[in-house]
Amino acid sequence: MESENIRLPWHMKDDEFVSYMRKVHKDVIVLDCSQCENLTHESFIQLSREEIVFDNLKHLYVPESSPFPDLVYECLAFMTPSLEQISNLRSNPNNTCDQLKCYAFFKKSNIKVLQDNPVENYGRINHASKTTAEKQKRQKWEQDLAKVAISCQKIESYICHGGFDYLDDKSFERLSVLMPGLNSIELKRCSLSDEGFVKFFAMNKFNKLVKIVLDDIGSDITDKSLKIIADNCPQLKKLSLIRLDKISKLGLDYLSKKCFQLMELSVDGKQKRTAFNALAPQSNSQDNECRVLDESVFINIGLLATQLSVLRLQRCDIIFKTIAERCDIYLNLKSLSLFDCSFGSFSPFVDFLTQLKCLSDLAFVDCQFVTPEIVINVIVKLTNLKKLTLMCKNKLFYSDVAPVAKEAYTMLTGENGGRFKLSSVEHLTVQGVSGQFLRLLTALCSQTTTLDYRHCGIPFVEKEKNSFKNIVDCEDLIEAVSACEYLKVLEVSSHSIGNESHNSKLNNEFFKVISTRLSSLQHISIDYDLKEVSKESILHFIKNSICLQTVYFNIAGCSFDESYLLKAAQNFRGRCEMSINSFKNNDNVFMKIVRLEFIAPQN
């Protein structure tokens, strides 16, 4: 049997799992049980009793819903001699699973990734406190970490989310001694300063780090830390700098000139107003000096980091007037994500994007400078764009789209009219636009195979009237969906449609249209009540959607019950199973029907 990456469906039960693993345990490399709602630790215990060994398993995802007890990991340590990573391993509220203790069981394995969350596992401590209880918590964490380091001597990646006062300069220095083979560190919410990085790299002489993720790791981190990283990490490929309030463009510029092998970069481009700068007058010149990323640094990164393929910018202000015609930067950039950014007038910015011949994934999130004109230009002019994410924050997306539609038509057909050029976009995610603009988007992106409206119609508040606008109604949704005849995945939420008028509710016509027009539809998710929809319409939809594999509906208040739907689905789709999730203090009841493509071998 060939090597396999197996992702198990949510409905997998213990007996099916055991039976299937007996068949594939020798060949599976990645086993993903993260979504399994019915899988218990007993299944792994049973495999252990049968002395089943996963010879080639390198990455195991345990279920997210219910953490396994320690005993399971003690068994897995003998069953998985090649295991390198366990995802979702965490302590549980019943104290039957201790995260670091579980890692320490794997003495003969090849564990390379260690996930640690001291606050979740040991409780909060105050760095300044001298109480015996808090000293004991910290001491226990340090001892457990040392045991893991002794047991798992091949650790290459340390991930710490929630280090707080546990992971300070002293313990960071100790970490480099305990795990000298680290090539990746991912730190979030810690208590580090520049001195911590000085000590870490003083002890770590191998300079192997290729991935560094720093998110809110300490209020005293400055450019000094960036310079230390740049001088000690010549092979750095992935870097993320988020919520570091005292770094500046000088530090980032120094780093860009040293780390030529960067492939992924995430930068939070503007500081919070903290104690060290809050009292200063905020003139334009001073605001410019506080920017972490400006035009010169942006150019240097694109010019020197020639392998950069992924760039994520957050709260950055860059004027593209002098950058637009540069065709020698970001030559290999494939993915660009912009969060709450500003780039001045749109023409130079769009001109810059058209220079990025490899760009296939573009995201605008909460960028007020993004207008309908920019979006249309992006869709029309970026001929290699495959994935577009729009989470808009501009009232222009709720205005009349006729002028924009006319401009789009002219760009696509030429001044004299001609053959209509199809957009290359295949994956479209939309939020914060009107129904009219939604129709225009899908008309332009008619080749789309994945359409995510889950947050499309989130209404905005008109301050002067203090009222909400209905943005998208059912007719808009029908027209938008009808334009995408190759659609395979459709997701709609309760925010996608207005909530007052009759036209805002999903109706029978909607299901009639999608069952007729969307012959390739495989997955549909509607987190929105279906009170206006008859059971005959649902049945007609299920019967006629020949490729349908997954149905996820909110059935609260519907005129049909779930058993009726499941029986109908089984008649048309073959073997199906259903899950029902209702939530306390919530009127929603969610139903999921899945066609079982994978059927576990039986005894």
From TrEMBL:
One GO term describing the cellular component = SCF ubiquitin ligase complex
Which SUPFAM superfamilies is this protein grouped with? Answer: RNI-like
What GO biological process terms are annotated to this protein in UniProt? Answer: SCF-dependent proteasomal ubiquitin-dependent protein catabolic process
From what superkingdom does this record's organism come? Eukaryota
For this entry, the protein name equals F-box domain-containing protein
The coding gene here is 20210808
